[in-house]
Write a structure and sequence with these properties.
CATH topology of one domain: Immunoglobulin-like
Shape: globular
CATH superfamily of one domain: PCu(A)C copper chaperone
Keywords: Signal
Number of strands: 11
Protein name: Copper chaperone PCu(A)C
Distance between the termini: 125 Å
Low-confidence stretches: 15-53, 188-200
Order of helices and strands: HHHEEEEEEEEEEE
CATH architecture of one domain: Sandwich
CATH class of one domain: Mainly Beta
InterPro entries: LpqE-like, Lxx211020-like, PCuAC_sf
Helix content: 10-25%
Oligomer: single chain
Radius of gyration: 36 Å
Largest sheet: 11 strands, mixed
Structural class: alpha+beta
Mean pLDDT: 76
Number of helices: 3
Amino acid sequence: MLSRRTRSAAALLAAAVALTACASQPTTSAAPAGTASTGTASAAAAPAPSASAASSPLTITDPWVKTTKKGMTAAFGTLVNNTDTDVVVVSGASPLSPEIELHEVVDSGGKMVMRPKEGGFTVPARGTHPLQPGGDHIMLMGVTEEVKPGAQVAFTLTLKDGSTLEFTAVGKEFAGAKEDYQPGMDMGDDKDGHTGEGDR
């Protein structure tokens, strides 16, 4: 029969072996059940691009349209390119006008005249392109409705890549920019009583 001392020593040896085995196993810490779901929720909550940003590489700031009784008028603002490549505006449309052209103002024999801008408006990468009286502008012809101060006029610009920019311009009185039309431009009856952008 084993002595009491022998039995005690054996018990201590067994306990030591058990502790050594536990210590040799890798320690793992399970993440709380809520941790993974919290991470997923954060990713899902990340802001998505707005519809306007996704649909067009351009935005426009401070758009306005010159008040007029009828005939012709023009829209202005600043085109902003939010991309790393040049963007070209090739055409425009508005419920206010059956015919819209992209115009520029040039010096012709010492006289400032308006004409369609060949190739449209190019907005440089990460840059801007001003539309202003006496410079590039959106020309509306055949306007039959009066544009009063504060009027809301919808526009759609089409870009070279086929995307579009939609915006609303506000009616604003303006008496400047009295350019003529380039000789040879057929403006029809709209030219009567009109000089520059919009009726005086």
